[in-house]
Amino acid sequence: MPRMKSAAELEEFRQQILAQRDADQPCFTLCSGSACHATGCGPVAAAVEQELEKQGLTGKVRFRRTGCHGFCEQGPVAVIYPEGICYLKVKPEDVAEIITETIVNKKVVDRLLYVDPTTGEKATLENEIPFYKHQQRLILGLNLEIDPQSLEDYLAAGGYQALVKALFEMTPEQVVGEVKEAGLRGRGGAGFPSGVKWDFARNAPGEQKYVVVNCDEGDPGAYMDRSLMEGNPYAVLEGLMIGAYAIGASEGYVYIRQEYPLAVENLEVAIARAEEHGLLGQDILGSGFDFTVKVHRGAGAFICGEETSLLKSLEGMPGEPNARPPFPAIKGLWNKPTNINNVETWSNIPLIINRGAEFFNAIGTEGSKGTKIFSLVGKVNNTGLVEVPMGATLRDIIFKIGGGIPGDKAFKAVQTGGPSGGCLPADLLDTQVDFDELTRAGAMMGSGGMIVMDEDTCLVDLARYFLGFLSDESCGKCTPCREGIRQMLKILTRITNGQGKEGDIERLQDLAETTRGASLCALGKTAPNPVLSTLKHFRDEYEAHIHDQRCPSLSCKQLIAFHIDPEKCRACGACLRKCPAEAIDGGKKRIHVIDQDKCTRCGSCLDACPAAFGAVGKLSGEPVPAPVPEEQRAIG
Amino acid sequence: MVNLTIDGTQVTVPKSFTIYQAAEQIGIKIPVLCYAKKLLPFGACRVCLVEVEQMKGRLIPSCTTPVTEGMVVTTSSDEILKVRKTVLEFLLVNHVIECPVCDKGGECELQDLTYELEVVTNRFVGEKFDHPTDESNPFIERNMNRCVLCGRCVRVCDEIVSYGSYSFVERGFETKIATAFDRGLDCEFCGQCVSMCPVGALLPRPFKFKARPWQLKHVDSVCGYCGNGCTVTFGVKDNQVQTIRFNDKNGVNDGNLCIRGRFGYSYVNSDQRLTRPLVRKNGELVEADWEEALTAVAEGMNRGKGTGIISGARLSNEEFLLLKEVAAAAGTTNLDHSGGECYKGLTEGVQQVLGLSASTGTFPQVEDADVILSIRSDFYETHPVFGMVVNQAVKRAGAKLLVVSDKKGKFTKLPNAETLLGKPGTEVNILNAICAVLLESGKAVTEGVAGLDELKQSLTDYAPARVAEQTGVSVEAIEAAAEQLAAAEKGAILLGYGLSYTANSRELGIAAANLALLSGLADQDEAGLYVCGEKANSQGAIDLGILPGESGLGVQAMLDAAARGSLGALYIVGEDPLTSFPDGAKVEAALKGAEFVVVQDLFLSPTAQAADVVLPAASFAEKDGTFTNAERRIQRLRAGIKSPGEALTDFAIFASLLEKLGAAASAATPGETFAGLGRLNDAYAGIDLNAIGPQGVVWGGEHLQPKVRNLVPVSGREPLTTRYQLITGSALYHSGTTTTHAKGPLEAVPEPYVELSREDAAELQLAEGDQLRIKGNGAEIRLKAKIGARLPKGVLFAPNHFPGTGLNRLYKGEAAVVVELNK
């Protein structure tokens, strides 16, 4: 395919692609995002290809491997078109049946359908599944329609129309105006209005300007950007090009984590394909607009998600933040005006240009427009990627979409905004997710991480965990972050070890405030959030740890003990066999007893004890009952 | 300008100011730790946080935040103090408290802040650092346990020195400042990092346990080495210069120094110094008193065949004046100051073209130059601190740096540097070719310029293609250089001269000045052409005419005459010609041929050993007076210590000698003499010694406009085509021969060497440190091989600082010497 030299050629090419496609042609769509790779989509894909060939269907049935569908809990996910039948947890051995039954015989394979755990009802189509039904997947939805390495798929799905519109029907000012009007706010965490940021870079003096994609997604458990980059790299590139056109940049960089090999691969293929077709390079589609993109792989430092650190790293220096001002829009990459947005922000641009600012700003709340993708993880039934309009409540996300908490446990808290976000308790479940509401509640939007915790999670320990992460990831440049986080971590570690002291809460509060107020970049400024929000909502847990040496969630190892209730023990030996520390004394028809000195509090005995007996229990803050004397241990 | 309010006081400052600078302007001192005036804002320590009404809800780092109109700033409040105290507590958690044995004690910024903020207890505990101390070099001790991670050393080494020795490594609490691969420090040893360190993490090793800061007497003077003219502040105790103190308030160097300035002072304290006059009796030099020695000198000079006076360029202006009086009293016009007559680039070259014998601009004007052309890469080595100005121009202001040189060097490694690497001795050809391109392309400035046709005619031999073929520099590079120079809004051409570069002096001066005219650089309001002398008062020597007088002999003619036996006496002041002059054999013959030789110096140099009378002189640290640096800045020298034994200042010696010669000094003290300098040079007239403040006085003003605009045709030369050729020059760590008596520089580069390319070394199967026999000009010497990436194939470089190498038996002043090599 030669380079396309005009918008008309592009449209002609699109029509050719569409003409070759039959909407009624069966299509086996297999989610092949990283999560489904982990659950085994590779062997499934091999089976599909084999089976299609075996049944002589190659070419008659399309087989499309797509990016992430979002329902990672139930992967690998397959969707059979044109009906849109959704099969979950598909295994290679299911493939023949799916092809024979569903594709050839047009029958549904019941056993692979989604079953509602509460009602027991089955859902055939994807959008009948509650997980999907309550989402509004304007961005993520495209993942299902395209093979991320196929430019044809992206074009068939309407790709590059926004670029053509921007290049040929809009001035750069109008593009910036549209983004401003849309009310798009940066999805990377800070929520700064993207159009305003673009305007700064556009108006900054200088010939050479840059646009950058921040795909250094470092929050533990968050993978929105990975899934977008893996599943639809063309949309990111299209958004980036529109931004470059608006700002006046001719070079772009994608800073992407080394840990995202599939995203890197798909992106590089997309860039190569776009270059071949004249959708990158000189004089794109004859518009006079030149644009090239380079991919830079990050070496894995959390701090490099912070924009000034990212730019430093891109320049080949250690990733450490710079004081702002000057902002990157004025002095960014190599001191040139630079606009940097995160993957999801860029992905929103084609939508805004295609559908218009009014369409976009009709979605969401007063201050936050459009949709937001969250990665819903932790103690929730349906873990996965969730895209909802701004303003959806935490309750809807966790319970309607997420299907609530597994194992009859009670919801305790949700941490939004990644490691330096905040924990919100049950009474704030009706908080709307929007930049300002979450901040007001003491948490933050961040880039969209959402970690659900049940009653077994100790919030003090959770704060300690996050501070440990942040202490490791603090770049060490500024004093308050470098030392303040470490000091908070020391105190939290002490508290969870049962060595909390009077005054620790006040010291934590003080440290948190200093670190928040005095740190150089957002890492340090937000690092105290886990402490502050848990102190605000779960202060009693801190007090229990400090004053009573009790962990109310029975989670902190140093504060709990396992005990076998002599009344309930049936001497089955299950716990004794499982105990890795040989801490259980017992025998045939003898009550089992845990030697507290040997016990490592791993909990194996609790897991091993048959539910019918329920003899093993956890204690905290109370003395462990004395062991039954040897002579009384025989069970009659 | 921007108006803002700080602690209730209105202040108006330029909009480039930070809050910190604005506060400083009205005398409000905000505490800082990582901030340093000459470094880019960093904002790491967070001690300088303030409150800004318009930015409520967070504290604002005053050192990085620019002022905005209407800003209302509070620099001190309970909240601010609390945070500052906490930050200090944080720093003190892991900082080892060794104040009683730390050399920084008494001037430690962490100590001062802790005291000022009354941080008497620490709420926090934590491990202390336990890094081994780096004592791998003799200059700088690195004790990272005391480091507060302010990054000043990292930044100064990168931003100003452009060496990049340090970097932050690891992260979080593990963060530390390290050298490459965490090995011992091995760098230029300029000690800039030491001067920037707020705590005792980086200390000058020669000063360890020498004195407490408050025991030192501070004396501001001027460095006695090169023409850069850096302010040095002696830290004096027990009549010894114990250390050079950091001083960024005085002078032109902004507190920056090179290894020579910072660590090379030790020769003044050397026990090898001459302390009594020596007179040759029965073939032996024996101690004598001043009366006897000076009487002998006066007699020697009066023997009838005439006297030749050869001076070094490290005498003060006042001493030069008296030296001229000595010459007059001795009835001679045979007076000169450089064996290579290398100053001719200025006195003849630039003089002919521009009517000036000095640089047009000042050093700071180069800080924001947009195009800089350095002739010879070793400009950084002859004038290191001016080199740092170039570093800043390139790295901060994005200046384009062009280097016309026969070897690579530090400049060629700078970002944006384009090296026009030519064969030795062909710099004039390359400059001519650039001129030719300027004229050809119509970009040359020719209005009001004389001699255009003649120049054009002469440049037909220097078409870029031909010069490219001759020199090995590409046509594109020549054309690009011309284009950049023509487009320069504020350009600078740098040419250093000195004893190590004696060939083509006049020609280079002309070629550079022609280029300065045609590119328009000579007619800018600032910067322009810099022709910089090698020694501390080279410019003063020219300004005051330490040059052959009417029908007088220049130095080479004096040596010839002496060798022929037609010169009665040679009076050599502050120079060791046997070591430093080209053609050592000729010097030797002259010393033998002259009936009477007087040497006035600090040490018993090889030349002094051949003298009939040796007069012990004072070092720069022992005298009052003035030096004029390479940008025409007249600065005051102040005696920090007394001379050892009976050594006297050159001024005092000349004054006494004048009496012996039946004359009298025109003034009794250097201070009184200064007023007389105007008699020798109009530019000095009317300058009041007492008005020479910390920044000196630049004679002629910050910028000199050309007095004439005469283009002068000048010939280049055909390069040598032999397999090997030897060039000589200056090495960064040394300056003239004096540094070979200074502990610091001598520890960095202790012995002579010859540098050659890896390619040549491989061909000769030579390893680093192997002895190499070098034959040329009928002589043979042996030097240790140093193998590197700096030199092109076939070119060898030997620095000219070391006595006893016999280098000047090979080198007779040529641009390059044909040599043969053997293992």
Automatic annotation (TrEMBL), chain A:
A GO MF annotation of the entry reads: NADH dehydrogenase (ubiquinone) activity
InterPro entries in UniProt: 4Fe4S_Fe-S-bd, 4Fe4S_Fe_S_CS, NADH-UbQ_OxRdtase_51kDa_CS, Nuo51_FMN-bd, Nuo51_FMN-bd_sf, Nuop51_4Fe4S-bd, Nuop51_4Fe4S-bd_sf, Soluble_ligand-bd
Q: Which UniProt keywords apply?
A: 4Fe-4S, Iron, Iron-sulfur, Metal-binding
Q: Which domain of life is it from?
A: Bacteria
Q: Does the keyword Flavoprotein apply?
A: no
Q: Name one Pfam family in it.
A: SLBB
Question: Into which family does the record put it?
Answer: Belongs to the complex I 51 kDa subunit family.
Q: Please identify the protein, giving its name as recorded.
A: NADH-quinone oxidoreductase subunit NuoF
- UniProt source species: Geothermobacter hydrogeniphilus
For this protein's source organism, the top of the classification is: Bacteria, Pseudomonadati, Thermodesulfobacteriota, Desulfuromonadia, Desulfuromonadales
TrEMBL record, chain B:
| 4Fe-4S ferredoxin-type domain sequence ranges | 138-166, 177-207
- Identify the keywords attached in UniProt to this record, alphabetized: 2Fe-2S, 4Fe-4S, Iron, Iron-sulfur, Membrane, Metal-binding, NAD, Oxidoreductase, Quinone, Repeat, Translocase
Domain (4Fe-4S His(Cys)3-ligated-type) spans 79-118
User: SMART domains under this entry?
Assistant: Molybdop_Fe4S4, NADH-G_4Fe-4S_3
Q: Report the main location listed first in the record.
A: membrane
* Domain 4Fe-4S Mo/W bis-MGD-type, residue spans: 216-272
Required cofactor(s):
[4Fe-4S] cluster; [2Fe-2S] cluster
Kindly give the CDD domains that the UniProt entry links to this protein. fer2
Q: What is the catalytic activity of this protein?
A: a quinone + NADH + 5 H(+)(in) = a quinol + NAD(+) + 4 H(+)(out)
* Family that this chain belongs to: Belongs to the complex I 75 kDa subunit family.
What is this protein identified as? NADH dehydrogenase (Quinone) subunit G
What is the organism of origin for this protein? Geothermobacter hydrogeniphilus
Q: Which gene name belongs to this protein?
A: nuoG
